[in-house]
Amino acid sequence: MSSTPTSVQPTGQSGESKKEGTSTEHINLKVVGSDHNEMFFKIKRTTQLKKLMDAFCERQGKAFNSLRFLYDGERVQPHNTPLELEMEDGDAIDVMVEQTGGCIQCC
Amino acid sequence: MSSRNSPERESISDDSTDQSPFRDPDSELFSYRCAGYSPIQIMGSDYNRLKDDDELNDNLIVFYMRYCLEKLRQNNENDAKRYYLFDSFFYQKLSDVNSRNRNKDKVYETMSRWIKVDLLEFRYIFVPVCEDQHWYLVQIINPAGIISNPPDCHIAVYDSIATKFKHSSAVRILKNLLIDYVKDVKGKTISKSVKIPHSIVKTPKQLNTVDCGVYILHFIETFMENSSVLEEKIIDKETEDDNWNPNSLPTKRQTILEIIKDIETEYQTQSC
């Protein structure tokens, strides 16, 4: 818990804080891992999503360049902000693991 | 692994002018923009995969597909408008949602958020698929033709391995998505049991265990260069290896690497 960045707070559960949830400055985002586990983040609309991405990677112990963050199928760039992507409170970001293919198993 | 992480590693290639053959895996080389698509970030780790004769990843596949489309757009803008290229995660998500939901309406409801264009406006839709650590490619020719009776569209599968890989579920899942899409945007109901012509395109086969991604990129690029002839041959199941410009396949990986280097140089000059 001590490693949690102050500006991007995983909130644990959806709509945990009703008082803060009404703030228009912040937004609650659901980050859905490739294992279908969900993690909730509260982030300022004007904060770069890199903070959320870094926090997620750190919590999952994954390298940044091994994961992809997609918002409605569009790849999120680290410098994007929720405001820029017109994200709404409660929206989901899908996290996908890098896809690689040769044909080791099928040849 | 540690040696690949070092940008100072000596190159075994004959490219003596390249002083730093491998890139810092965590550095962003560039962010590539193709009109109509969100930018794709190419990292040092992506470059190193290509350089190191490693398997291609989603970043390289999506980048190069879009690079081919941009190249086509510069030569013939109207021709480029006929293509739509899905991200490589589209099929993965579709397949995952499909296997987790018995309620098929829910599948379409989820996936419709991922579809930002009018699919029926395009002549060719390319769907790169990564399954069981293998890349292959699905192409939907004339998607709007699914409304005709009998359907006047075609689903083609490109696969560079010689053994029979199972593509039937990808063909079925994509067909069902198209049927749901037509129902949603046109209000027209088509039976899921409708027969859509489909085929496995006869193409050159890969000679190693790592190049399937390189091959699908080559097939897309070759198709774009000669679509009028190839479309007919694919539908008539008459393609031969020679239709796919096989002579440039052995150097394809190097060609893609050189293109990435050029864009990297251009991008870094611009950001200075």
Automatic annotation (TrEMBL), chain A:
Family matches, as CDD domains: Ubl_Smt3_like
SMART domains per record: UBQ (SM00213)
Domain Ubiquitin-like: from-to ranges: 25-102
Coiled coil: none
Comp. bias (Polar residues): 1-15
Membrane-traversing stretches: none
Positions of the UniProt region annotated as Disordered: 1-26
Pfam families assigned to the protein according to its UniProt record, in alphabetical order: Rad60-SLD (PF11976)
Domain of life of the native organism: Eukaryota
Descriptive protein name: Ubiquitin-like protein pmt3/smt3
Lineage: Eukaryota, Fungi, Fungi incertae sedis, Mucoromycota, Glomeromycotina
Automatic annotation (TrEMBL), chain B:
Chain intervals with Basic and acidic residues compositional bias: 1-12
Gene Ontology biological process terms from the UniProt entry: protein desumoylation; proteolysis
Domain of life: Eukaryota
Domain Ubiquitin-like protease family profile: 40-223
Entry keywords, A to Z: Hydrolase, Protease, Thiol protease
Gene3D superfamilies: 1.10.418.20, Ubiquitin-related
Molecular functions per Gene Ontology: cysteine-type peptidase activity; ubiquitin-like protein peptidase activity
Region (Disordered): 1-25
SUPFAM superfamilies linked: Cysteine proteinases
Family annotation (InterPro entries): Papain-like_cys_pep_sf, Peptidase_C48_C
Signal peptide interval: none
Family: Belongs to the peptidase C48 family.
UniProt name for this protein: Ubiquitin-like protease family profile domain-containing protein
